[in-house]
Design brief:
three-stranded mixed beta sheet; two-stranded antiparallel ribbon; 5 strands; mainly alpha; single chain; 76% helix
Length: 316
């Protein structure tokens, strides 16, 4: 009886409040977030068109980059429109099932992106350490299979989070989510029941995906650096290393932001809540925003193709 007096039974609608503590300035925060989203959409779409239209870019590294662009477009679109609705128009309500769907999409896209980064590291490893076997190993069929496997891995691992929330929790302390999007732990914290299983499974998924991918990315680059430094000519070493720079930048940015956001959210109780939420938002918005800029600036083939697209003149 006491539980029913202080809790809500299976709400159909939840309310996202945005960034707690910064409600008065959310309309202004929405401006750079919107700009980042628009640049991310334009940049990734342009990157995808460039890779599809240029046959010389139909190589494993660029195909994986195209997959990354698709994920970034989908990830940004699953978050930003609702977020801007909260910031600018105070549209805070979201159906419970829609919230769970958004949570599943966000964490699935994150896990898929991590898997694609691992695939790109393995591609660079084979290209530099076993260049004569690269074409025979990384066939288009294998690339398709890798894309399907990393997507299914993320989707299947995240799916039980939905089931555990939907089936285990009947009572909630509140229907107000102190966040700007539906994140797993933000939803779990609403429950008025034992959440230990949900927390443990969430940690299991995070460390399974990130731990596995990060371990093999690190091992790949250790082998790459060993092979590069064994090359006799300085020019050859620089050329080989240059093919990895863009991926290293994206890889470091992705995991550094991920771990900072993860640990501050769970263990940084002395940080103000808005710090957690801001870094969570930046963790999801910065990668789609920076990826096309980094690869466009560091990859000559893409840069040349984009310049030709904009500078070509119509024949008289």
């Amino acid at each position: 009886m006491s539980m029913s007096n202080t809790t809500v039974s299976m709400p159909s609608v939840l309310r996202l409040i945005g960034i707690p503590g910064l409600e008065a300035v959310q309309r202004w925060i929405g401006i750079p977030f919107c700009a980042m989203y628009l640049i991310a959409m334009i940049g990734n779409t342009l990157l995808l068109i460039t890779i599809i239209s240029e046959r010389r870019l139909h190589e494993p590294m660029y195909i994986f980059l195209g997959m990354l662009a698709v994920i970034d477009i989908a990830l940004g679109t699953s978050i930003v429109p609702k977020m801007l609705g909260i910031f600018w128009f105070h549209i805070q309500e979201i159906y419970f099932d829609s919230c769970l769907l958004q949570m599943w999409l966000i964490h699935t896209f994150q896990g898929t992106e991590s898997g694609i980064l691992l695939a790109m590291a393995l591609d660079r490893y084979v290209a530099i350490c076993y260049p004569l076997r690269h074409a025979s190993i990384f066939t288009h069929q294998l690339i398709t299979q890798i894309g399907a496997v990393v997507t299914l891995r993320a989707a299947i691992l995240v799916a039980p989070c939905l089931v555990l929330i939907k089936c285990r929790f009947q009572f909630y302390h509140t229907t107000v989510i102190s966040h700007s999007y539906c994140e797993h732990m933000a939803i779990v914290k609403l429950a008025a029941e034992n959440v230990r299983v949900n927390k443990i499974y969430g940690l299991f998924v995070a460390f399974t995906v990130a731990g596995f991918d990060l371990t093999f990315i690190t091992l790949s680059y250790i082998q790459i650096f060993i092979a590069v430094f064994r090359l006799p000519q300085k020019e050859a070493r620089l050329k080989a290393f240059n093919t990895c720079i863009a991926h290293i930048c994206v890889f470091l940015r992705f995991y550094l932001l991920a771990f900072f956001s993860f640990f501050t959210h769970r263990f940084g109780s002395h940080f103000p809540p808005y710090i957690h939420i801001l870094f969570s938002n930046l963790y999801l918005l910065v990668p789609p925003f920076l990826n096309p800029l980094v690869y466009g600036a560091k990859t000559k083939q893409i840069r040349v193709r984009v310049v030709k697209m904009f500078c070509s003149q119509n024949p008289p």
